[in-house]
Structures are given as structure tokens and as C-alpha cells.
Specification:
With 278 residues, the chain is mostly helical. It has a domain of 102 residues: Serine Threonine Protein Phosphatase 5, Tetratricopeptide repeat (Alpha Horseshoe). It contains 12 helices and no strands. Helix 4 runs antiparallel to helix 5, helix 8 packs antiparallel against helix 9 and helix 9 runs antiparallel to helix 10. The longest helix is centred in the C-terminal third of the chain and has 19 residues. The protein is globular and about 70 Å long. It starts with 33 loop residues before the first helix and ends with a helix.
Length: 278
């Protein structure tokens, strides 16, 4: 016998009409000081001090939870998933990812730029831990939101296009990946100090060409991408801050992979000097 379809009332407990609990006011929300939290986080990251960064974020996550500040919780979970991704900690990264995505629904902000950022960060985590299909699902959500809510020159859009290119490369959708990498470059050319992101994208294009055509056939175009990236990283006007050090550190081994051992050493030393100075 087929089970009858449950009525809505089957899912809910009856409420006593004389019970006043349902009319009690909820405790007020106490927002955490997001700007100050992120400023301090940048200080830790500028010293490459990931342990202190994690402790800092977990402390403020607890404060946001105690204060019923779901917007603050969303911001912190986004930062945590990025931190855990950088430090290659899969389980906590996925835990923060799931909590952040759930908060999007709880807050009812599924079409906001904040949701687009969360989906982008979550998709990047999935990509980092070799789950490109799941990554692609969230990137598609992020594109739909970002292209409706952001200006065409917004750096967040450039970051999305670049990271989407990585996932498409993993899925061997090479022509689509190249198109999105070029869109990322077009966006970042319109941003101050966008050279750092463009350098990263050129290195991603080098990896794409190698994956698509093989090392021998792609050698010439790879050399062009490598030299363009190195030239951009050496622009004198770029601030030598913690983020610059992070990019140099991230790019250095890629130069080494393609035989630019001096570039590798130079950028690694440069990053270390900045971290030590900070």
C-alpha cells in the first residue's frame, strides 16, 4: 500500500495557544568588528603566521556565534576555508565550506555578491582537493551572481574567471579555460596593481598549454607566458607587502618547474625577506 503524502502539519509540533514562549523576543544580535578582525588577520598573513591566523579566526568565530551574528560567521567561515585550503587541510576546509554555504541559505542572500564570493571560495576549495565536478557547480552559481551584481572591472570577477580556468583545465575543457583566463586578464588590467593576478594567470596559461599540447609542442608559447609573468612580478611600483610576498612564494616553484631556477630562487628569497621584515 502506498504511503499517504504527509500534510504540512505532520512535520510540525502543535503549539499551545496559551503558551507565551513563541512571543518572546530573541536576544539581540551583537555584530563582531569585521574590519578590525580582517585587518589583524592581514597582519598575521603578512608574516606568514598561519597558526596565529587560525587562532584569531576561531576566536572571532566563537564571538560571532555567541552574538548571533550570522553575517560575521559567514565572513569568518570564508576566511577559514581559504586558510585551510592554503595549508592543505582538507577536512576543516570542507567543514567551513559546508557551514558557509548553509549560512547563505539561512540568511536568505542567495543572489547577493556575498553569496557569489562564498560560492567562488567554496569552488576553489573543491578544486584544490581534486573535486572539479563539485567545483564547477559552484563556479556556475558564482558567475550567474557576479555578472549580474558586479561591474565588469571588479577584481572579484577577475579572480573568479582565473579560478574557473583552473577547474576547466582539470576537466580538460581547454578552450573554455583559455577563454576565461583571457577574460581574467582583461578585468585585472583595469585594476590597480592587477599585475600580480595577471602574472598568476600567465603561469596558469603556461600549465594549460602544456596540458593541452604537451611539453615539446607548447614550449614556445610557454616561454612567452613565463617571461611575461616574471616581468610583471618585477614592476618597481608594486607594493612589497605581505600579499606580494604570498604571490612570489606561490609563483616561484612554477618558474622552477619550467627550468627558470634563478627566477625561482630570486622570488623565494624576496618573499622570505618580506615575511621576516613584517
Amino acid at each position: 500500500m502506498d504511503k499517504e503524502q504527509m500534510d504540512f502539519t505532520d512535520y510540525t509540533d502543535p503549539i499551545c495557544p496559551f503558551c507565551t514562549d513563541q512571543f518572546k523576543k530573541q536576544a539581540p544580535v551583537h555584530p563582531i568588528p569585521i574590519s578590525r578582525v580582517l585587518e589583524k588577520l592581514d597582519e598575521h598573513l603578512g608574516r606568514n603566521d598561519y597558526d596565529s591566523a587560525e587562532k584569531h579566526l576561531l576566536y572571532w568565530l566563537g564571538e560571532a556565534e555567541d552574538g548571533r551574528d550570522k553575517h560575521g560567521m559567514l565572513t569568518i567561515e570564508n576566511e577559514l576555508m581559504g586558510l585551510y585550503r592554503k595549508t592543505n587541510r582538507k577536512e576543516p576546509a570542507l567543514d567551513s565550506l559546508n557551514k558557509a554555504v548553509a549560512l547563505i541559505d539561512e540568511l536568505g542572500i542567495g543572489q547577493s555578491a556575498a553569496a557569489g564570493t562564498t560560492y567562488t571560495n567554496a569552488a576553489t576549495v573543491y578544486k584544490a582537493f581534486s573535486m572539479p565536478e563539485k567545483s564547477m557547480e559552484l563556479f556556475e552559481k558564482a558567475i550567474d551572481i557576479y555578472e549580474k551584481t558586479l561591474s565588469p572591472d571588479d577584481s572579484r570577477l577577475g579572480g573568479l574567471y582565473n579560478n574557473l580556468g583552473l577547474t576547466l583545465t582539470d576537466l580538460k575543457r581547454f578552450d573554455e579555460a583559455k577563454a576565461y583566463y583571457n577574460k581574467a586578464i582583461d578585468v585585472m588590467k583595469q585594476n590597480r596593481y592587477g599585475e600580480l593576478e595577471i602574472a598568476i594567470t600567465y603561469l596558469n596559461l603556461a600549465d594549460l598549454a602544456t596540458a593541452q599540447f604537451g611539453a615539446e609542442e607548447s614550449e614556445k608559447i610557454v616561454d612567452e607566458y613565463i617571461e611575461k609573468a616574471y616581468e610583471l612580478l618585477n614592476k618597481d611600483y608594486l607594493p612589497r607587502n605581505g600579499y606580494y610576498a604570498f604571490v612570489c612564494e606561490k609563483c616561484a616553484p612554477i618558474f622552477g618547474y619550467y627550468g627558470r631556477f634563478l627566477y625561482n630562487k630570486e622570488l623565494s628569497d624576496r618573499a622570505r625577506e618580506i615575511y621576516e621584515r613584517n
